[in-house]
Amino acid sequence: MQQLKLTQKLLQKLSPQQILLMKLLQVPSVALDQRIKQEIEENPALEDVSQEMGEEDSSDELSHEAEEAEDGKNEDEFDLSDYMQDDETPEYRMQTNNYPEEDKKDIPYANTISFYEMLQSQLGDAGFTDDQRVIAETIIGNIDDSGYLDRDIESIVDDLAFTQGLITKAEEVEKVLEEIQKFEPAGVGGRNLQECLMIQLKKKDLSDPFIKMAIRILDRHFDAFTKKHYDKILKKLEIGEEALKSAIDEILKLNPKPGNSLSETAKTNYYIIPDFIISSEEGELVLSLNSKNAPDLRLNRTYREMLENYSMAHKKSKKDKEAMQFVKQKIDSARWFIDAIKQRQHTLFITMQAILEFQYDYFMTGDDTKLHPMILKDIADRVNLDISTISRVANSKYVQTSFGTILLKTLFSESLKTDSGEDVSTKEVKKILSNMIEGEDKKKPMTDEQLVVYLKEKGYQIARRTVAKYREQLNIPVARLRKEL
For the domain 415-482, what is the CATH code? Predict the structure, then answer.
């Protein structure tokens, strides 16, 4: 049996304007320009006047005409004057640091061929038969960006039979692969790191005793070499430390990823456009917004005039009323977008200003050890905004400083208490840990247990597993792999 019930609920709903603002907050400056262009294309009532700075504004005249037209309005009509006023210069335009025109130069790009094009270009000089060339092209097609052959020989034999209709043997594919391994860059076509390094060494002066020794190390003691068990290698080869060091130096000169040096040149270059600029003026830090990609926006004059003409007409047909409603909706939408852009810039500015004040010592020096523990709530409380809003501001935004351009969210970190009860940033501890490892004796690198002891001597009470976690986050290997001769 169905029953009707009357219930009361308290719900929080976001208006379209709030949703628009939240979306715009997430957009970094580098992508804002495209977002504005998209809005202008979709809404003809919005226009970009950044190229019309010399044009006289006739908004006062239009507003005066609008006032005269109000006498003929019906009570159910909207206030036309709300739609006839041009926006004043937004406050954020007064606090920006735009790049000067002379800095807008074309960036030259090198005219280079890709890694695969370079390999293909060497096929003609290899003296391959028609069948061997087909095999070679298949092999090259299976070489990854790092320069390694990532498919086994038997699978390539099957590929050739099914896709090319070429029946061949593994021995023939191996023979062609050996020729490709003679191509440049040295080491290309290796099936693993050991083979890649061996290919490079065999292209060197084989009369050099240290090159010969390096080949023996990779051929017979590769596992001990990768694990830096140098004592085992010394015992097996019956050589001194200096000779081993010279042989290993030859190995360290090799390129473990021969394809990367070439493939990188073919990749797109990305340039960071900072959202904020912090500069020093008379010893004080000053924050400004980069609005390079935020042009001046206003309501389209033609649409305002259309609305005025419709309003002044004493007799309005159904079509006139529908047209006026359409124009009103477009102008409303344009106003919302302009207001959202203003609010976005205001929110960005006050949030970054709070971060600057919170981390003033860090921005003055660029020293990571000066970073104070800071979480999203710390800034949210200062600017009276929601934590989610601060998160949107911090995400994908960059600040330009005298010591580099920094991703904003990397400034946030948890706190850790010292012996004296002082709260310090985990970034500060990581910096100290990094400095300790950098300055250690590489012949006897410090273990995680030793690092714990040193940190405790400096007043940081940290468990060994925490040190291991921080070390991994810094991409620093364990002590055994940091050992050098």
Answer: 1.10.10.60
